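The protein record quoted for completeness.
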Amino acid sequence: MKIAVEGCMHGELDKVYDTLRSLEETEGVKIDLLLCCGDFQAVRNENDLQCVNVPPKFRTMNSFWKYYSGQVVAPYPTIFIGGNHEASNYLWELYYGGWAAPNIYFLGFSGVVKFGNIRIAGLSGIHKHWDYHLGHYERPPYTEDTKRSVYHVRHYDVLKLMHVKEPLDIFLSHDWPLGITEYGDWQKLILEKVFFEKEVNNRTLGSRPAAELLNKLKPPYWFSAHLHCKFPAIIQHGKDGPTTKFLALDKCLPGRNFLQVVDIPSEPGPYEIQYDEEWLAITRKFNNVFPLTRMRFTMRDEHLDTQDDQQWVRSKLSTRGPKPFDFVQTAPSFNPSNPVSKPFITVPCRNPQTESFLQLLELPYLLDSSNSEGVNRNVSSSQPGSTLVDDDIELPDETEDAAEDE
C-alpha cells in the first residue's frame, strides 16, 4: 500500500492533490491514501473562517469548500488530524471523527480507524500544560481565548489512546513528541532552524503527552508536522524492542518538503476507511466520564477494562457493518460569486454523523452541553485510585508562525 503523508495542509487541497497526480504520472505509481498531520483548515464558509486562529490578513478561503460542497471530489481517500489553525467549530461537530467532506475523513480529537488492514491512530491539536487537565469546555461562538484553547490537547483524549492494546501501524500527531530530536540529526536541524537550538539543548522541544504515547504504543511509523521543516528519526524501543520510524514534514509551499510517500506491506485492496472495534470499545467505555467543564479532569482509575465493550461492539458491527456513517452537509458552502459581507454568529451544530455514531454505541449526545464553571458531573467520586498530578512543562511556540500560535 502506497501512502502519501503531508505536513501542514493550510487549506491547500488543490495543490497537494495536483502534486500527487503529477507524482503518479512521473513515477508510475498509484497512491492509495493521503494522510495529513494537521492544520488542515476544513473551512466551509466565512463563518468557519472566523473560528480559525489566524490574523485577519491571513484569512483566506483556500480550496476545502469546493470539496465540502461537492463541486469536486477528493481523488484520494484522505485522513487528517487537527492542528492549531483549524475551523474548530466544524471539527467539534465531528469530535469522535467522521467525514469532513466526501472521501475526506477527520480522525477526531483522538481516534483510530482501519484502512484495509492498516490501523491508523492520531491525536489532534497541540500541547499546552495549562489546559491539559481541563475538560472540553469551549463552545462556539468562541472568544479570542477559547479560539486558541479549543485545540489544546486534553489528558482525556490522550488517556483513551493509552488504552489501545492491539498493534498500530501508523500514528499521526501535529506536535512532535518531546525528545524526538535525540533520535535524528539534531545538529542539522538547528543549522536550518537556529531558533530551535535552546529548546533542543534543554529537551523542551515537543509534546510530553505525544512522547508518552510513542513510548507506550510503539507504532512502526509516526508522522508529525507543526514546526514547518522535515526531520526524520528512528527510535529503538529497548535493546531488543521494536523500532519507530518518525518523520516530520513541512507545510505546503513550493520548494518545501511537505510530502512523502511510504510503501507499507498490506493485504490486497480494495481499500476503504472502516471503524476500529477496539477504539469504539474504548470510546464507549470512556464516554461516561467525558469532561465538559473548565474544572480539572481527574480520573482515579486510569486502567479501564474494555474487553466486554469490544465484544459488544463486534456484535453491533457484525450486524451494521464497519463503514462510517455517510457524509452530511451541516452548513452552507462558500459561494465565490455571492460572498457574505458579514458572517453570522457561529453557534454549536449537531452533526447527523455524530448523532448516528453515538446512537450506534448507545451513548448520549453531550457535545452541546456545557457547564464551564461547575464541577465535572461526569467523574465518579467512588472510583478507586489516586488523583493525577499536573507536572507538564510549558512548551514554547516553535513554528515560523509563532505569533499565530498563542
